Every structure is written in structure tokens, then in C-alpha cells.
Structure to design on (248 residues):
């Protein structure tokens, strides 16, 4: 028997319990016949005031991922989608592959993770070499994001971290501050702008920034959900989320 509402796919979405952006953004991108089932990774709203506190707090999230997987598996999803990005970049390409492997082996389901999905999105354009990226993180986490992208063959021209002081504060970054940061990152030698950090409300803003900057602007939530749909053979074009969804 096929699920009446999720006849094309039941997506189990894993996201930190403090994250208030992934769920609504993914739901906005959801085509008919696909349903999203959010499983919250228990995440204390830790104060992040340094590299060490930020990195330690993300490791707490990493340690609770499997419990969230077990919870969402009770609805028999057909596919998993990771709605937390930082830990999917840790350790570069090999670290991302190991993270993906652990989830796959535990759940016996494929999964889209932010690091691999963003690379796939950039590769889809076919001519992107130099990128700049924005995160809500601290510098130590940006180093891990840089490592992943460089190992994937991209040149990092610039990067910026917003040093958000708490997990919930990430969702409170106003659009004006995001535009200012992206504007600082943009330059003629940058082929594409990338935003990492799933609790930054960027999916629709990135589409607007593309028009202004006249180049791809890849928001990680858009890339991850796009990757999940395409991995399941769902090729719907979704309006309002930029060229990734309208072209590929």
C-alpha cells in the first residue's frame, strides 16, 4: 500500500531541536506527493562564545543524531534528509563520507547531507571553480567547511562567519545583515556564493541575491532538499528558490 499523501516519497528530516528554519523552508519546497517528517535532534541552546564552545556544542548534536534517526524510522520513511550542516563538513570529504555511511548503515536508508548536496549543486552549474561562503559559525567550523570544499576541487576566495552567540540566535539574523555579508563576499573573481548553516533563513533570500549579484547563490537548505528530490527521481521545478530548482 502507498501512503495517501506521500505517494512519491516520505522524507525523514533530521534537524536540531533548536532549529526553527529547516522545517518551514523544506515544507515550502515540498512538491505534491512528498511529505516531510521532522525528527528533532535533542540540542541544548548552548552559548557559543569561542571556537571551542562552538565546536563542542556541535559535537553534542552529532552524538544525538542516531536517536533522532531511530525516532523518525517509526513512520517508515523512504529517504532521510539531514537538516543540520556543520557536522557534515567536519573532517573534509572523508569525514562527510563517514558520517553518511554511519547513518545509512544504521537506518538502511540513503540520505542527503548538506556537504555533499552543496557540492552536487555547484557541480550542476558545470563552470564553477571559485566560491565564497557565509556561515553563522565560528572560525574553527569555517575551517572545516573550507577543507571540504577545497578537497572537492573548489578554490575559496573568501569566507565569513557571523559568530552567532546561540543556536536560536542564528534564526534571528535579519535579512539586511545577510545581504551585507553576501555583498562583502561578492567580487568579480567569485563564480558562486554559498551559504552554510541550516538555521539561517536564506532559501528565498538567496534567490533574490542571485538576481542582484548575477551569479549562482546556493543556500544549503535549498541544495539539500533539491538533492533529496533529484536523488528520488523527482524533477519538479520549484518556483521562488533560485536557478538551482528552475534549471536543474
Amino acid at each position: 500500500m502507498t501512503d495517501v499523501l506521500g505517494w512519491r516519497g516520505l522524507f525523514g528530516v533530521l534537524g536540531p531541536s533548536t532549529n526553527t528554519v529547516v522545517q518551514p523552508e523544506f515544507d515550502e519546497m515540498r512538491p505534491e506527493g512528498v511529505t516531510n517528517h521532522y525528527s528533532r535532534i535533542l540540542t541544548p541552546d548552548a552559548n557559543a562564545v569561542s571556537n571551542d564552545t562552538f565546536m563542542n556544542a556541535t559535537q553534542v548534536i552529532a552524538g544525538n543524531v542516531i536517536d533522532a534517526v531511530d525516532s523518525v524510522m517509526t513512520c517508515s520513511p523512504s529517504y532521510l534528509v539531514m537538516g543540520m550542516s556543520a557536522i557534515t563538513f567536519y573532517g573534509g570529504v572523508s569525514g562527510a563520507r563517514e558520517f553518511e555511511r554511519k547513518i545509512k548503515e544504521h537506518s538502511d536508508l540513503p540520505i542527503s547531507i548538506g556537504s555533499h548536496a552543496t557540492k552536487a549543486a555547484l557541480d550542476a552549474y558545470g563552470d564553477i571553480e571559485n566560491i565564497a561562503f557565509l556561515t553563522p559559525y565560528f572560525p574553527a567550523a569555517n575551517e572545516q567547511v573550507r577543507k571540504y570544499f577545497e578537497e572537492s576541487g573548489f578554490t575559496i576566495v573568501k569566507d565569513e562567519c557571523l559568530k552567532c552567540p546561540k543556536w536560536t540566535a542564528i534564526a534571528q539574523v535579519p535579512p539586511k545583515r545577510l545581504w551585507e555579508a553576501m555583498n562583502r563576499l561578492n567580487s568579480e573573481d567569485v563564480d558562486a556564493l554559498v551559504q552554510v548553516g541550516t538555521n539561517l533563513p536564506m532559501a528565498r533570500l538567496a534567490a533574490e541575491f542571485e538576481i542582484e549579484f548575477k551569479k549562482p547563490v546556493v543556500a544549503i537548505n535549498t541544495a539539500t532538499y533539491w538533492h533529496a528530490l533529484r536523488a528520488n527521481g523527482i524533477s519538479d521545478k520549484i518556483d521562488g528558490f533560485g536557478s538551482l530548482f528552475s534549471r536543474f
Remarks:
- Strands lie at 9-16, 34-41, 79-82, 111-112, 130-135, 155-161, 192-195, 217-219.
- The first helix runs from residue 22 to 28.
- Residues 124 and 248 are 7 Å apart (CA to CA).
- The chain has a mean pLDDT of 96.
